[in-house]
């Protein structure tokens, strides 16, 4: 008989409560420490995570959720599916990091968003020549390590269907699911080895099954799990879905022989309708939100577990997805407002909630009554807090939304702006940030610790701005930026200044590899108490006659990279943020800005996974951007910037933003985005990125000129702008100067050919 469990989480944060892994990995990359030191930090972090989960009452602990860089890349390694270009690197760790980050001679694998989150995974490349071969050393190593510590360990592995659906076919147009037959024997072999090593359960993550899938794809998923559940000696299989509803895939999976199915009941409440089909399964009920930071309404969750989920075979309480997406613990937040703290649950607090629910479900509610009382109190104080409902703000928003007539036509605006700006054809610009050097970050840390005062901090940042402006003047760029040195992050910086947001001190969440972000918490109605960027703009503009762009982050991106309110539609929160940004654009214009850029790199990220929900999203997201940008006169040129995405599905929305100029990541997708824009009749200014800023490589003049000539085949010169793919904050000073010098030289060469 299969042993069941009662309380679990689908995965854990791994970067370390104080970002220990980030520091260890970066130190290894820089050659300041060796592999043994890195491994010992990693081992310590794993041990701490597992023992904390077990000691808190989790009776099935996920392992193999640790990663030096990314769990999808780990799966590619497990299946022997790294591309040939890294195969010659003998050391496995260096080969792994070369695949993730590239080196002087090797291009890294691409990176893209993990579903609709702000986590980025490495995209495996699968070519017809790829020969799969099992390397189970990482997962078996973690399993043995955990079992030796007495941890009830459940290895977690990206499932075969999701692995293939997320990979990129190379040198072929055949869908990769056709390769399922090649990897299933490896997964089957793995199952035997895990059983032999002592695993009672294994978790296969299949989040790709919550998106729209064809009948063939669902049939392939069914075949895969029929096959794997048919393996003789194996652990019980938990098939984990998250980030939405399994929909049509649920009944198909229910018919396979897997013992358990994890369903997301936060993002996928439709999953409840499928529970009767799971009468023979161990249902792992994701009732505690793994993506957001609000304390769970335990009464409601317990009610759901006791009634709507009653037809499940057996039940375990869980988070809706891995806790990778939330910070470790509230304990690290000393500056939190008391009321707000009582409404929140970060990683370790969510674990307590899972255990409290499992305990109550087992009929021992009296043991966890305190936890229930805190949850009830939070529901009530939150609902009654005045900061959540500002009548004056809401009235103003209504008034502006209904009276905003928008801007003049694109053509009319172009004429006025061209006269005012007097730029040459193929204007050059950069996206906003210049290198966030250690000196900048150290200055900010010194300000935080009180080692320098505000005046000294401003002086240092102004020096950075002056250096960046002087550099751009020297290089001969057309529209300048101030370089964003004062911003810790393009979202957090704004959240720190807006009422209604709380910015954490230590709420780090992995964004990709060693890079982390601290998503702010949007808890109340949004107000802008004072201008946020105007003085930085004013200072930069005082140093040059060339136009300096006002630089803002748009409402969709501010929401996408924050923890958002769950007590009102996202569209309403977006409009409140949009109003604050609108006020800022108006102040920038009044301060003299002729160009204002409002970045929306996360526009694609928030696109719902199911088609049926997409239209509504696109409508409100475009609406909120337009609300943010339509307060200025027609003479002020609005730019936007988009990156980190495949834009195909949101191309109409990009046109709908109606920005005068859109800079867009294109260097890696070889300008295909321009054809997509043409297909929807886009006729505004566009700056397809002419080189990839994700690599330290300096692009040559020839290469950039070639990119520009390619762009000119799709876009008339009058509408074409020249810029890098994205901001330069992760790059070094030297490579930035060399790359931009080449960008300007290439532009001059191509201008001469017109
Ligand atoms: C553009 N991207 C962003 C995303 N999401 C965001 N919220 N913001 C983004 O910019 N999603 C998509 C992409 C993801 N890309 C990146 C790129 C780079 C980073 C990154 O560099 N993160 C930094 C942390 C940035 C930050 O908040 N810095 C603070 C604190 C700095 C710090 O740790 N200081 C040290 C002392 C100084 C030192 O030793 O360096 C300290 O306090 O101990 C700041 O500048 O003040 C990272 O370190 O990971 C993220 C996503
Ligand atoms: N203005 C920002 C956009 C990044 S997506 C920057 O330059 O970093
Ligand atoms: Zn960008």
UniProtKB/TrEMBL annotation:
Keywords (A to Z) from UniProt: Amino-acid biosynthesis, Metal-binding, Methionine biosynthesis, Methyltransferase, Repeat, Transferase, Zinc
Binding positions (Zn(2+) 1): 641, 643, 665, 726
Native source organism of the sequence: Rhodococcus triatomae
Sequence ranges assigned to domain Cobalamin-independent methionine synthase MetE C-terminal/archaeal in this UniProt record: 426-748
Reported cofactor(s): Zn(2+)
Binding sites annotated in the UniProt record for L-methionine: 431-433, 484, 599
Binding residues annotated for Zn(2+), in chain numbering: 641, 643, 665, 726
Residue numbers binding L-homocysteine: 431-433, 484, 599
GO molecular function: 5-methyltetrahydropteroyltriglutamate-homocysteine S-methyltransferase activity; zinc ion binding
Superkingdom per UniProt: Bacteria
Residues involved in 5-methyltetrahydropteroyltri-L-glutamate binding: 19-22, 113, 118, 515-516, 561, 605
EC code(s) of this entry: 2.1.1.14
Domain Cobalamin-independent methionine synthase MetE N-terminal: 7-306
Entry annotated with the keyword Cell wall biogenesis/degradation: no
Details of cofactor binding: Binds 2 Zn(2+) ions per subunit. Binds 1 zinc ion per subunit.
Described purpose of this protein according to its UniProt entry: Catalyzes the transfer of a methyl group from 5-methyltetrahydrofolate to homocysteine resulting in methionine formation.
Protein name per Swiss-Prot or TrEMBL: 5-methyltetrahydropteroyltriglutamate--homocysteine methyltransferase
Family classification: Belongs to the vitamin-B12 independent methionine synthase family.
Pathway(s) the chain acts in: Amino-acid biosynthesis; L-methionine biosynthesis via de novo pathway; L-methionine from L-homocysteine (MetE route): step 1/1
GO biological process, one term: methionine biosynthetic process
Gene3D superfamilies with a match to the protein in the record: 3.20.20.210
Catalytic residues as annotated in Swiss-Prot or TrEMBL: 694
Known catalytic reactions: 5-methyltetrahydropteroyltri-L-glutamate + L-homocysteine = tetrahydropteroyltri-L-glutamate + L-methionine
């Amino acid at each position: 008989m299969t042993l069941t469990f009662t309380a679990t989480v689908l995965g854990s944060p791994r970067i370390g409560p104080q970002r220990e892994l980030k520091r260890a990995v970066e130190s290894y990359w820089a050659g300041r420490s060796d592999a043994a030191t890195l491994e010992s930090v990693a081992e310590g972090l794993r041990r701490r995570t597992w023992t904390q989960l077990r000691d808190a009452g989790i009776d099935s602990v996920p392992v193999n959720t640790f990663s030096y860089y990314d769990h999808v890349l780990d799966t590619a390694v497990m299946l022997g599916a790294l591309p040939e270009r890294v195969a010659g690197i003998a050391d496995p760790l260096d080969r792994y990091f070369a695949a993730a980050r590239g080196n002087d001679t090797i291009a890294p694998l691409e990176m893209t968003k993990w579903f609709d989150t702000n986590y980025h995974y490495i995209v495996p490349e699968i070519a017809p020549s790829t020969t799969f071969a099992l390397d189970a050393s990482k997962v078996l190593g973690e399993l043995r390590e955990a079992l030796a510590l007495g941890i009830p360990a459940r290895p977690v592995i990206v499932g075969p269907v999701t692995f293939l659906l997320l990979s990129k076919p190379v040198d072929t147009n055949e869908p990769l699911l056709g390769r399922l037959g090649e990897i299933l024997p490896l997964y089957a072999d793995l199952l035997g080895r895990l059983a032999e090593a002592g695993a009672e359960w294994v978790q296969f993550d299949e989040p790709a099954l919550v998106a729209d899938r064809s009948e063939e794809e669902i049939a392939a998923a069914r075949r895969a799990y029929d096959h794997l559940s048919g393996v003789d000696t194996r652990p019980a299989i938990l098939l984990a879905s998250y980030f939405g509803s399994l929909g049509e895939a649920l009944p198909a999976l229910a018919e396979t022989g897997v013992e358990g199915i994890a369903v997301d009941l936060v993002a996928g409440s439709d999953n409840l309708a499928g529970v009767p089909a799971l009468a023979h399964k161990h249902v792992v009920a994701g009732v505690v939100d793994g993506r957001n930071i609000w304390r769970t309404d335990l009464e409601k969750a317990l009610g759901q577990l006791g009634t709507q989920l009653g037809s499940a075979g057996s039940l375990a309480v869980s988070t809706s997805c891995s806790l990778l997406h939330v910070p470790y613990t509230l304990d690290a937040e000393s500056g939190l407002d008391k009321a707000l703290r009582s409404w929140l649950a970060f990683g370790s607090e969510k674990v307590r909630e899972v255990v409290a629910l499992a305990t109550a479900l087992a009929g021992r509610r009296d043991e966890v009554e305190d936890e229930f009382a805190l949850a009830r109190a939070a529901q009530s104080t939150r609902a009654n807090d005045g900061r959540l409902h500002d009548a004056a703000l809401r009235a103003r928003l209504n008034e502006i939304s209904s009276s905003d007539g928008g801007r003049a036509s694109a053509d009319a605006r172009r004429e006025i702006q061209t006269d005012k700006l007097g730029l040459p054809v193929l204007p050059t610009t950069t996206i906003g940030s210049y290198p966030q050097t250690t000196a900048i970050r150290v200055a900010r840390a010194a300000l935080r610790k009180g080692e320098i005062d505000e005046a000294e901090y401003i002086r240092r940042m102004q020096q950075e701005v002056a250096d960046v402006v002087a550099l751009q003047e020297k290089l001969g760029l057309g529209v300048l930026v101030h370089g964003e040195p004062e911003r810790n992050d393009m979202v957090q910086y704004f959240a720190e200044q807006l009422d209604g947001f709380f910015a954490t001190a230590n709420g780090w969440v992995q964004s990709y590899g060693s890079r982390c972000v601290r998503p702010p918490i949007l808890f109340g109605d949004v107000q802008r108490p004072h201008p946020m960027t105007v003085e930085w703009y004013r200072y930069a503009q005082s140093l040059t006659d060339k136009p300096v762009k006002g630089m803002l982050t748009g409402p969709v991106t501010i929401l996408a990279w924050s923890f958002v309110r769950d007590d009102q539609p996202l569209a309403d929160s977006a409009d409140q943020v949009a109003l604050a940004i609108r006020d800022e654009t108006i102040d920038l214009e009044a301060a003299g800005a002729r160009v204002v850029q409002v970045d929306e790199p996360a526009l694609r990220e928030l696109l719902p996974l199911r088609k049926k929900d997409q239209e509504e999203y696109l409508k409100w997201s475009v609406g909120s951007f337009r609300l943010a940008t339509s307060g200025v006169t027609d003479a002020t040129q609005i730019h936007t910037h988009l990156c980190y995405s495949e834009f195909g599905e949101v191309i109409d929305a990009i046109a709908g933003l109606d920005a005068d100029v859109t800079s867009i990541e294109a260097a890696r997708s070889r300008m295909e985005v321009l054809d997509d824009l043409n297909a929807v009749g886009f006729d505004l200014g566009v700056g397809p990125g002419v080189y990839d800023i994700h690599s330290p490589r300096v692009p040559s003049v020839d290469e950039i000129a070639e990119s520009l000539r390619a762009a000119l085949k799709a876009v008339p010169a009058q509408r074409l702008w020249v810029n890098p793919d994205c901001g330069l904050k992760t790059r070094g000073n030297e490579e930035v100067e060399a790359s931009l010098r080449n960008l300007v030289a290439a532009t001059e060469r191509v201008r001469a050919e017109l």
